[in-house]
Amino acid sequence: MDHESSSGFSLLTASRFMGIADGNILSWCPTMDLIAVSMNRMSVWVFRLTGERIYSVNTKSVIVSLVWNPSGKYFAVSGQDGLCKIYDSNSGQLINVVGTGEKIDLISWPEYNLSTNNYDLEGLFEVDTLSQLPRLSSYIDHTGADNSSAHLIAFQIDEINKSNVDKMDYLLSVQHGNSLSITFNSLFTVDNIKLPDGFTYLKHISNNDLFHQLFLVESDTKDYVGILEAEFKISDQDNLRSYFIKLLSYSCKILSIFNYIKDSLHYIVEEIRPYFQFFDRHLSNLKDSLYNEIDLTTHFPTEEESNRKIVTSFIDMLVTGLVDPQLKDYWTNQLSERGVKRLSKMGSALYETIRKVCFNRLIVALERLVVILNSIEGIVRWLEDFSIENGDDIINFGLSSKSISSCCEQIKALIEYLYRLICEINEEERLFNEFISWIKLGVIDKISKEDDLESYYESLQSSFKYSDLIEYLNNYLFSSKLFNYFEVELSSNEVILPQKTKHNVVVMYDSIESNLRSTLIGSFSSYIRSSLDLTKTYSFDVMPEITLSSIYSPESKGSSVLCLHEKPTNSLAIIKFTEGDMSFHILRRIKLTQDQSIIKTSLGQNSNLLMLVKDKDQYLLKLFNLDDLLSQDKKEIDYRELNSVKSIALQGYGEYSLTEPSHLAANQYGRQIACILDAKKRNYVVLEF
């Protein structure tokens, strides 16, 4: 269209959403040309510029807000259920859920550049041991499980395998106006941080400084608007902040390893169950055949008696080489060669899976956990010794080197226990294969060729070690060694009924995780809560009853810009403040006439200010230069006197015409594009400026 080219705006698309947007969420991905739109209050649809919907997610709760991870890889949706659900931007798959269930007022997702903490000679003699360890991988097939579980595990593995990462993101949320929660790398959550009362928290100002957080607040009495400063009381001397960041990173990795190990243990148990259920079904059929001529109403055998009878029947066949005639139907028709093959296949697959999961996943993850804990213990010991030598108060971030060392010993014991498990199942598998071979060749094949036993013995090429078979029948048939290491729910079984053990892999791991959560994660969380100072506030000279229109913090730290819509005076207050000196700020106020009204504004890179304005009966999208506005001599500026860099009347667009533009979303950090949505919440246009 001609008016686009002459205005300086370029029309990228004019289209119509497939559904009816609810107008709550209209948000651009910071790194990809994707726009998220809330539909039906509980769903998020993600579109390309062309209007093509690539996926949708149902949050199962009324949506409050949506924020993107700075990398654009993920987005988080907060709902009225008090939870933040984190999704993969490429697929829309749920990867994690954080939150306490308390009402969420606002969320923000900044990141901290670790390279900003450069200390003299830091890392000169540091060896990154984690990067030298085997990388964790997931060969487990999750196709039969919930897809979100597979995506969550992939996300955990990525976090565990990260090495020398230079950025850390953190998701902040304010609940009920009096509590702050911080989730680092979507994993490590520190919640219940007490916030000062008497304020409504409007927005978190993303200044990319983890140690220095700013919140735009309004007093509950509506007579005060300003900034609340939240600062971690951690000295910038002696590399303390660097150690603090390392501990945060290690804590995230530890929690990832927790989830990774729990998934692996759950997978093993789920693999064990069907094998023993199948085995039990055939042993139960054998028991029924053995008791076929016995009146069970007058003599019902105990578990021990029935097990002894089954074992005796096997040993009789083994010693005599004869098959009880009443069992021939069981061997040839009920179990049959097909059943033996399936049992053999399931057993071999189970033992192989357990070996691989224990060695490639559990042991590797536990070894990585030991290395991480040793690194943490080294930091804590150094801080303790350094403080004692200098006569200072001990600064150890709330951690105890002795407790960490104790946890390391527990983990080492579990690793040894897993190696013992691998050795024992190797022996059990050897005996199991001998048993299966005998059942196939020494029983079923013999029955099938009983009319020509001479040719049967001539073709028999295998010999059976009777001592191994008897050992399997006596010690493994009803009590696999796996039952000593894993508690498996087999209550529906009739014959294979494992006894509960107080000491197994899951119990040992649960003890380790519980200790680490209390002595490390819990103690470190308590330290973080206590180290956050929330006492500094700074006021702005703006009217009460304001509406936050937009906010922007450049990636280069140092300043932030706010746009506040002052409804009583129909004005737009523009505030630029320096974070190092909050008492200094520049304020300019754009005043509009009664015929003019601000619908939406958006701040962005290159000192851009986009304003969606209704001027009499015309809707205009205007682009202003912030530096020009803030350099004006007058503090109050008449809107009619402003010269915009670009301006366009939002009219035309054919069947996709905007009768009443009411929503504006611009990409602050990536491509300079803006989406304007009609009041009917279907037609929209995307403009590049």
Automatic annotation (TrEMBL):
SMART domains: WD40. The lineage of its organism: Eukaryota, Fungi, Dikarya, Ascomycota, Saccharomycotina. Residues 239-450 form the Anaphase-promoting complex subunit 4 long domain. One of its GO terms (biological process) is cell division. Pfam families: ANAPC4, ANAPC4_WD40. It comes from the Eukaryota. It comes from Pichia sorbitophila (strain ATCC MYA-4447 / BCRC 22081 / CBS 7064 / NBRC 10061 / NRRL Y-12695) (Hybrid yeast). The keyword Electron transport does not apply. GO terms for cellular component: anaphase-promoting complex; nuclear periphery. Residues 26-110 form the Anaphase-promoting complex subunit 4-like WD40 domain. InterPro entries: APC4, Apc4-like_WD40_dom, APC4_long_dom, WD40/YVTN_repeat-like_dom_sf, WD40_repeat_dom_sf, WD40_rpt. Keywords: Cell cycle, Cell division, Mitosis, Ubl conjugation pathway. The keyword rRNA-binding does not apply. This is Anaphase-promoting complex subunit 4.
